[in-house]
Write a structure and sequence with these properties.
The protein has three helices and six strands. By secondary structure, it is α+β, with helices and mostly antiparallel strands. A hairpin with a 2-residue loop joins strand 5 and strand 6.
Length: 132
Amino acid sequence: MTVKPDEILQENFAPWVLDLGLVAEEVGDGKAVLRLPWSDRLAREGGALSGQALMAAADTAVVLAVSGAKGGFVPMTTVQLNTSFQRPVTGRDVLIEVELTKLGRTLAFAEIDMTVDSVTVAHASAVYAIIG
């Protein structure tokens, strides 16, 4: 990995984001793959993983993908995050796979696939403003 994703997470994210337990499996070249480990604490009524947890994981993964493409963390903020939930997740880890589709000087665009056993459970698109 060209950047240190664990350090980026620890130094730039709120404690509740860190509580998601995200594990960076790959970061670099405009891509990032994070694992969101299953936790009963992230489940909603009925036992399925909450959409808020998936969206927070996707949002965080984009920051790491941009950081990887830039060679390190730069200040940025979410402009848009649009998520479609396709299947419930119960008792399984989710892979969050980000691909930057465009990285400009002030904006980054990303597509995010969230999968369990190679099956898409949610998909998101995001736009970020790069402020630094």
